[in-house]
Predict the structure.
Amino acid sequence: MNFLDLTIAQAHEGLKKKEFTSAELTRAYLDQIKKTDGSIGAYLAITEKLALQQAEEADKVIATQKDFPVLTGIPFCVKDAILVEGQIATAGSKILENYVAPYDATVIRKLKEQGSVILGKTNMDCFGFGSSTENSAFKVTKNPHDLERVAGGSSGGSAAAVAAKEACYALAEDTGGSIRQPASFCGVVGLKPTYGAVSRYGVYAYASSLDQIGPMARTVEDVKTIFKAICGKDPKDATSVGYEFKDANVEMKGLKIGVPKEYFTDGSSGRVGNSRVSPKGINPEVERIIKNAIKKAEDAGAKIIEISLPATEYALACYYIIAPCEASANLARFDGIKYGLSEPADNLLDVYLITRGKGFNAEAKRRIMIGTYALSSGYYDAYYKKAQEVRQLVRQDFTDAFKKVDVIFAPVSPFPAFKVGEKTDDPLSMYLADIYTISLNLAGLPGLSLPAGKAGNLPVGLQIIGNHFEENKILSVASKIESMLK
Amino acid sequence: MISKEEVQHIAKLARLELTPQEVEKMQQDLTAILDYFDVLQKAPKVKVGKQSVSKFELNQSRNDVVAQRSASLAYNLVEAAPDKKDGYIKVKSIL
């Protein structure tokens, strides 16, 4: 039996029937990491000791209890932005290179309570700033489908680890597309839940009005299992809400699927966003794959309804003001005093200046600078306030759309995985990778990336968007499309 | 083009030391990004009163009561600081 091919449900069955132990399963993943991660670079730290200890504990539970949680003994990896007590948590940045997490994030506590096994911490663009993991201070994660290409980002390490079978599943975090876009690039399933559905306690804050933790796995069913385990109200995150996941079975027949005309080249606007940033719009292969998935849904009885999201044109600029503004405030805490890197200097101000100057890389500095600029006196109204107004327009578009449709189908990214180094010199063209994903964060909506086909050897994800707290609907539809595309 | 002095001023507000090369690159990058933001000026005005916040978006603060936490948490937090003494975080004199 190849342990590495097992889904969560299959591994759970195997553990239950005593076909193998969690220790065996865990060792198989650790061996795979050692074998393949040298070329992929998904992991920043392998927590082997912790993993084997957790596996041993899980095996004790499995040996003595007839029924145990579905995630007991199942090995997973964690984006390095999420704290695991006693383990390094760098957020992909030099400023936190040797930082040891003092406590568990709520999502980690929940998964530990289920007896899941932590294999390691995965690579990311520093603090989530990027769409390719090229902004990691430590290394670039390569796409397992083509090692010359990026895995996407910012959760590229988590997506690549799942795709390369270096973990059964992964936890990641999405502020503007950081779960969905790498999931699309690496051909795995990734869910960005509704804002408030999952506690963010114990994750480094990037942009607090946008951040959300979510799962990545190889199947829709697995993603659902993880989501059910981590969602819910947490007193330690004031934005989390009391919400219980209820399974749904959505029939394709009569399902109203909205397709935003602004997202495709034959829509009335003819292109995505600002022409300076997006002269070509969507890659034709990506468009073909997404349209094919839409066609399959239509053949199964769904009603395809063209919708309009007119604020799409402004969403990218809106996001790249709001997110850096919040980031510039959130990252003020990294000042060389409480944690991480500290550069010696004669006075306090110089400690701040030199520590931050050395500890943050180019992209972190760029975002802190944009945020500080947009929030500074004299520019606040023109940038931050304007962006907040436009955010209302983006939300209103979706509110209007969901009066007419049940779910929305869209691409995840306008292009498949690009080559390492291809976009590093042009921050604006890199930002474009987020054009279809950021609107959801601005509107607080859930979205899932489902592998829908390949452009050459490169996976392409279909984005399934639902209304607030309708993850159950998204997952049910995704599961059906998943079987249709097999 | 955003000026060198402006970049240096913002960098100081942001508590970032930038090298002369970084200042120059930042001038170019910020100018390009800020120019792109001009697209927002074309966006329709939002009518006052139209802004709505869903019930899910209101922060729900926990009760203001002392929560028992393990002593190891305090130890771990102080331990993470670069400079500490006798269970306290050391800082430079401020005045």
